[in-house]
Amino acid sequence: KIYTDYFYDEADFDKNHGMGYKPLTIPEGVTxxxxxxxxxxxxxxxEGNDVWFTIESQEGESQILPGAKTKTWGYNAPLLGQxxxxxxxxxxxxxxxxxxxxxxxxxWHGMEVPGPYEDGSCHAPVYxxxxxxxxxxxxxxxxxxxxxxxxxxxxxxxxxxxxAMGVVVTDDNESRLPIxxxxxxxxxxxxxxxxxxxxxxxxxxxxxxxPMGIFAETPMINGVVKPYVDVTTQKVRLLxxxxxxxxxxxxxxxxxxxxxQIAGDDSFLEHPVKMTKVLVGPGxxxxxxxxxxxxxxxDVVNLYTDDFKLVEFRIHKFEQDDSKxxxxxxxxxxxxxxxNAPIRKITMDNHDKINGMRYAMERIDMIQELNxxxxxxxxxxxxxxxxxxxxxxxxxxxxxxxxxxGHTPNPNEVGxxxxxxxxxxxxxxxxxxxxxxxxxxxxxxxxxxxxDAGMMAQIQIVDPKDPDRKYHLMDMETI
Length: 479
Ligand code: C2O
Ligand code: CU
Ligand code: CU
Prior knowledge:
Layout: E1 2-3, E2 33-34, E3 45-47, E4 50-62, E5 70-75, E6 84-87, E7 91-98, E8 107-109, E9 131-137, E10 143-148, H1 155-161, E11 164-170, H2 172-176, E12 187-195, H3 205-208, E13 218-221, E14 227-231, E15 235-242, E16 249-253, E17 259-263, E18 268-275, E19 277-280, E20 285-291, E21 300-305, E22 308-315, E23 344-349, E24 353-354, E25 366-369, E26 374-380, E27 390-394, E28 398-404, E29 420-423, E30 428-434, E31 439-445, H4 448-453, E32 456-462
Parallel strand pairs: 1-18, 2-14, 4-7, 6-11, 12-15, 14-22, 23-26, 25-32
Antiparallel strand pairs: 3-4, 4-5, 7-9, 8-10, 10-11, 12-13, 15-20, 16-19, 16-21, 17-18, 17-20, 21-22, 23-24, 26-30, 27-29, 27-31, 28-30, 31-32
């Protein structure tokens, strides 16, 4: 079966309810550029099972548009960053260096690391000029996760300036699968963002600020405005990362070329799902394989969002590839729900509240036991008439999607670990959530302006063997 719709109600799409929506444009004079592929971050040292990295937040200048360079921020790069690759089972040590003029944090979105310090939430500031070191063990399946800044309440501005990069987890299951895995040749990260460029090609977060979430005018894929990809193999694997503050990406190819989804946020899918359209919301990741066997040298196949051309795939000569995807890609560990736990009710209200309240750094909103699998019913209380999709995200947890308004979830969210999920107005999504690490973790809407405005709360995960463990939480004044 090939799915041909976006699985969501069109009326709820960002483009259909006003509220600051901007259609995309390409500024005049921009010519096609090769897609930038973030280089793989080199380790400082590897010793047996241990690996050491340094990640430096820095200011820089990037040639994004013709003419003046744009002032941007990045990790070990002027804009965005490099791709960090870690393997399941590895012990990872990271030096977090802040060379920015402001404080920042390093949040591992999708990584199962203890909170709130290693996790890099607002409780883990690194001040200008400082270096901190964290360590964690990778104990999760292969996936594309990501690192981004998370200082409250300026997460949105810092991500806007460029602080976001991919963190790839690999494992033995992935190495066994017959899928493209030659990074930069037949496997490409596609970081989907939009930015508005003002005078002298500069970003201006304050000018663009919109509490409902910022739409920008120009698409930027891996930091490139009008990218093309040279296709030299029959099959190409694309790692989509919804990296925009607000914008949803509704992706599809020329000729309704089929995308076979193989992975979601935090794992492979149990079974591949074929589709011609897919929606990627802020914070979500999704991996697809496209098969260009129907094309020949010289052809050009475009990737679109709605009807706007995003990426051009230029077909070169390639060798025939008869490899077949197995039906079974991954087996999620679907453990039974704790029968003693109540069903948790979480509401996303307006554009700035969770359960009727704005985020407070010193307030713990919920407590859950380590490794206890529990139902979370997450509701978007926006009215159908003028609401929007809110992408709900949990730190430090992977969840399985149980149902949407009591019905089966979308086909591409079955049998896969996720950490971010779109919830439509008046919809309740039931999740099975457990936390494999202790600490204090945020859960929030991943429209980053909503998160900064207060559509965020926090949960403390308690180990019954060490119930009195205390965490030092920051407050808005000291930060
Ligand atoms: Cu990607 Cu709390 O975020
Ligand atoms: Cu996160
Ligand atoms: Cu929201």
